[in-house]
Amino acid sequence: MSDASRAGGSGPQGAGPVSRAGGVIRRMTARDKEEEHRASTPLELFFDLCFVVAVAQAGSRLVHAVGEGRPGHGTLGYLTVFFAIWWAWMNFSWFASAYDTDDVPYRVTTLVQIVGVLMLAAGVPRAFDSGDFRLVAIGYAVMRLALVTQWLRAGIAQRGGARVTAFRYAIGVTVCQVGWMILLLPHGAPPVWAFVVMAAAELVVPPLAETAEATSWHPGHIAERYGLFTIIVLGESVSAATVAVQSAADEHGAFGSLAPVAAGGLLLVFAAWWIYFAVPIEEHLVSSRVAFAWGYGHFAVYTSAAAIGAGLEIAVEQGAGDIDVSTRGAAAAVALPAAVFLFAVWLLHSRRHKRGLAQQTVLPGAALVVAACSFTGAHAVLWVGIVCASAVAVSSFLEVRSRGARSGG
User: Fold this and answer.
1) pTM value?
2) Domain boundaries, the chain
3) Is the Cα dihedral 211, 212, 217, 219 positive or negative?
4) Tell me, what's the pLDDT at 132?
5) With the CA atoms of 49, 122, 96 and 109 taken in that order, what torsion angle do they form, in degrees rounded to the nearest 10?
6) Which residues are CB-neighbours of 305 under 8 A, at least 6 positions away?
7) What confidence score (pLDDT) does residue 68 get?
8) What pLDDT, on the 0 to 100 scale, is given for residue 404?
9) Per residue, what are the HEC states of the chain?
10) Given this model, what pLDDT does residue 14 score?
11) Which parts of the chain have pLDDT scores under 50?
12) List of residues 6+ apart from 239 with CB closer than 8 A
């Protein structure tokens, strides 16, 4: 593959690949949806990496809230903050899949969006501790308004329905951003009902915008982008659990008693990775309607995967006696998000490749058993890991047997 192709760019359909090297100003034409070898760019990977800070902050504050005896408050704050993180990342990723020119204005605008990510991350502790979302709102505004300039630039360069779509995105994002500013800046935190209304408004912008003409997002590229962010979130879970075990061992010499938590946590994260990447998904992203539903559904995948890390940290701190949380509460902090992850991945990915009742029931059944592990006492995390690993083994066995039956072996 040539360097130009590896860079990932193409001109209008039929024009062939073009260079996307930074350092020049290019016309922001739509990329070819049928382009081969579309891959994530170094700028996209850098953008993802900066989101790790925000994800880590959200998970850390969830742990603190649960440790202070405020699990309801912590869960609500976690979901609201994670919505801002996820939605900003998702909008950037879909735009980049259709219009990434990789020139100087595009790079600078993306770096401005990264500044917004870091501002949002810096505001997470204040949002959790005192309900003051103003810094989060400002960081979110920086990310979103930078995206508006990208859509305006795309609209100026397009013709016909593509221009209408781009300008609809710019208008919709701007209107939503004004709504957030009205809600958040004067008072710091909106009522729950107002947040739900504004979040719903954000979610309807893409389907409404693309009624004029669908953007040229690339199924393989989008599937890769979502997979990479899944790895980042799971990696944050591993990091959080490792730091928690290290702290407990250093302060209390309690590594031996925490070994079941560490072993169960590793089994859980390894199984989560295996289950998510067991089957390809891009071939099923055949339309914007299907792809949007799949993309929106990843809110459950990402929030549950990140919450697994927070839950493992809670389980470690509870085992070391550092927080006043019951054994069942610590178990539920791991088991419930793990169950949500298993069911969400089955709903979005796995069920499309499963054949027969036995294959289709493995992950939903495992999700139920994992949730029930909340009642298994001090070794709940280990049991969760064993159940998830067993689900991988059973799924793999059934798949091999099914292939053998289809081939007549």
Assistant:
1) 0.87
2) 22-209, 219-407
3) positive
4) 80
5) -120
6) 230, 233, 234, 237, 272, 337, 341
7) 84
8) 67
9) CCHHHHHCCCCCCCCCCCCCCCCCCCCCCCCCCCCCCCCCCHHHHHHHHHHHHHHHHHHHHHHHHHHCCCHHHHHHHHHHHHHHHHHHHHHHHHHHHHHCCCCHHHHHHHHHHHHHHHHHHHHHHHHHHHCCCHHHHHHHHHHHHHHHHHHHHHHHHCCHHHHHHHHHHHHHHHHHHHHHHHHHCCCCCCCHHHHHHHHHHHHHHHHHHCCCCCCCCCHHHHHHHHHHHHHHHHHHHHHHHHHHHHHHHHHHCCHHHHHHHHHHHHHHHHHHHHHHCCCCCHHHCCCHHHHHHHHHHHHHHHHHHHHHHHHHHHHHHHHCCCCCCCHHHHHHHHHHHHHHHHHHHHHHCHHHCCCHHHHHHHHHHHHHHHHHHHHCHHHHHHHHHHHHHHHHHHHHHHHHHHHHHHHCC
10) 34
11) 1-22
12) 56, 309
Q: What is the pLDDT of residues 200-210, one digit of tens each?
A: 999 999 999 99
Residues composing the chain: 409
Name residue 375's amino acid. Answer: F
Structure confidence by residue, pLDDT tens digits, 284-311: 888 888 889 999 999 999 999 999 999 9
Inter-CA distances, 399 with 363, 394, 405, Å:
13, 9, 10
User: Residue 187: what pLDDT?
Assistant: 64
Residue the block writes with tokens 């799971």: 234
What separation, in Å, do the N-terminal and C-terminal C-alpha atoms of the chain show?
38
- The two tokens of residue 45 are 């990977």
Q: Measuring CA to CA, which residue among 330, 305, 309 is closest to residue 319? A: 330
Please, what's the b/e burial string for 170-179 (b: 16 or more CB within 10 A of its CB; e: otherwise)? bbbbbebbeb
